[in-house]
C-alpha cells in the first residue's frame, strides 16, 4: 500500500486529480499485493450508463464485473463524480484536492475488493468473512462451474441452458435489491476500502495538516460500519443476521451446503471478537457500541 500512499500524496500535493494513469497504477499494485491475477483479467474504459451490470445508477464511475472478471471504468462519469465532490467538499487547497482524490481511491479500492472477495469466497477456513462471502457469492461461483459455452451464451446472448442457474440468479438479484448497500459484499468492500484509505491519511497527517480530511473519512468509515444495523427502542438488529435469515428462506440450489455446524461454530467464534471485526462482519453489537461508533 506504500506505493499507493506515495501516489495519492504526490498527485494531491501537485493539485492533480486522479486520472487514468493513477487508476492503472493502483490496480496493478493491488493485483500484485493481493495476488488477484486470476480475478482481475482486464481493465477497460467504457460507457457504463447503459451497462447491464451497472448496479450504482447511470452515473457509476466504476464497477467490477464478476462474470468477466474485469474492472470497468467510465472516464466521463469519473470526471462528473469529481465535479460533484468539488461542490460538496469545501476545504482549502491541499485538503480539498486530497479529499477528492482519496474518495476516488476508496471507490477504486472498493471495486478491487470485490475481486478479492471472489477469491476469498472460494477459501474454506476459520475466517467467518470467507464463509459469509461463500454464501453471498454462491450463485456467482455456480456460474463458473458451467461449461464455457453456457457462460458465453448467458453473457453474450441472454440464453440460459441451465434453468436452475437462471432461477438462482433471479433469487440472487432479489437479495441484491432487498439489501442493496447492506449486502455483505457491499458492506465489507466499503469498510475494507475506507479503512485502507484512512490508514494512508494517517500516514500523510504526520507531515501535513489534514484534520478536516481525517474527520471526513472517519465519519465515512463509521457510516459504512453501521450500514444495515437497525436501532429501535434499544433493540439492535444486525444486517448479517437479517441477510442470512432471508437467504435460508429462499430455494437457492446448493445453498443449504453452507449452513452447517461448521458455519454456526465459526460465526459464534466471530461474535466474540473485537467491535471492529463484528462491525465488518455485520454481527451483533450492543447499544453502547452502536453509539460509540456513531459518534466517531
Essential attributes:
mainly alpha; 296 residues; two-stranded antiparallel sheet
Number of helices: 14
Question: Low-confidence segments, ≥5 residues, pLDDT <50?
Answer: none
SSE-based structural type? mainly alpha
Order of helices and strands: HHEEEHHHHHHHHEEHHHH
Termini separation comes to 25 Å
The radius of gyration over CA amounts to 20 Å
Q: What is the overall shape?
A: globular
Total count of strands: 5
Brief description of this entry?
This protein is mainly alpha-helical and 296 residues long. It is built from 14 helices and five strands.
Description:
The chain is 63% helix and 6% strand. It has helices at 2-13, 20-34, 75-88, 93-121, 128-136, 138-143, 148-157, 163-179, 184-204, 211-226, 239-249, 261-271, 275-281, 287-294, and strands spanning 42-45, 62-65, 70-73, 230-232, 235-237. The strands form two sheets. A three-stranded mixed beta sheet has the order 1-3-2. Strand 4 (230-232) and strand 5 form a beta hairpin.
Task: Give the secondary structure arrangement, pairings included.
Layout: H1 2-13, H2 20-34, E1 42-45, E2 62-65, E3 70-73, H3 75-88, H4 93-121, H5 128-136, H6 138-143, H7 148-157, H8 163-179, H9 184-204, H10 211-226, E4 230-232, E5 235-237, H11 239-249, H12 261-271, H13 275-281, H14 287-294
Parallel strand pairs: 1-3
Antiparallel strand pairs: 2-3, 4-5
Helix pairs in contact: 1-2, 1-4, 1-9, 2-4, 3-4, 4-5, 4-9, 4-10, 9-10
Amino acid at each position: 500500500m506504500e506505493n499507493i500512499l506515495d501516489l495519492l500524496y504526490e498527485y494531491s500535493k501537485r493539485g492533480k486529480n486522479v486520472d487514468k494513469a493513477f487508476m492503472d497504477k493502483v490496480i496493478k499494485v493491488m493485483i500484485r499485493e493481493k495476488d488477484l491475477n486470476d480475478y482481475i483479467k482486464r481493465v477497460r474504459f467504457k460507457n457504463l450508463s447503459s451497462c447491464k451490470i451497472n448496479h450504482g445508477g447511470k452515473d457509476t464511475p466504476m464497477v467490477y464485473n464478476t462474470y468477466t472478471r474485469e474492472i470497468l471504468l467510465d472516464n466521463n462519469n469519473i470526471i462528473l463524480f469529481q465535479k460533484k465532490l468539488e461542490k460538496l467538499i469545501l476545504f482549502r487547497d491541499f485538503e480539498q484536492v486530497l479529499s477528492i482524490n482519496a474518495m476516488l481511491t476508496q471507490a477504486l479500492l472498493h471495486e478491487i475488493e470485490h475481486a478479492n472477495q471472489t477469491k476469498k469466497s472460494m477459501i474454506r477456513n476459520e475466517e467467518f468473512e470467507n464463509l459469509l462471502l461463500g454464501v453471498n457469492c454462491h450463485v456467482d461461483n455456480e456460474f463458473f462451474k458451467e461449461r464455457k459455452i453456457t457462460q458465453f451464451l448467458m453473457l453474450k446472448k441472454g440464453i440460459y441452458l441451465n434453468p436452475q442457474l437462471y432461477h438462482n440468479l433471479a433469487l440472487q438479484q432479489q437479495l441484491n435489491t432487498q439489501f442493496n448497500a447492506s449486502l455483505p459484499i457491499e458492506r465489507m468492500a466499503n469498510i475494507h476500502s475506507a479503512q485502507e484509505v484512512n490508514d494512508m491519511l494517517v500516514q500523510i497527517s504526520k507531515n501535513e495538516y489534514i484534520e478536516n480530511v481525517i474527520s471526513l473519512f472517519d465519519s465515512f468509515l463509521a457510516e459504512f460500519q453501521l450500514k444495515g444495523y437497525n436501532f429501535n427502542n434499544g433493540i439492535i438488529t444486525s444486517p448479517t443476521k437479517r441477510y442470512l435469515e432471508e437467504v435460508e428462506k429462499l430455494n437457492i440450489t446448493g445453498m443449504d451446503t453452507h449452513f452447517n455446524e461448521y458455519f454456526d461454530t465459526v460465526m459464534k467464534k466471530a461474535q466474540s471478537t473485537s467491535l471492529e471485526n463484528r462491525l465488518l462482519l455485520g454481527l451483533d453489537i450492543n447499544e453502547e457500541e452502536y453509539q460509540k461508533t456513531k459518534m466517531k
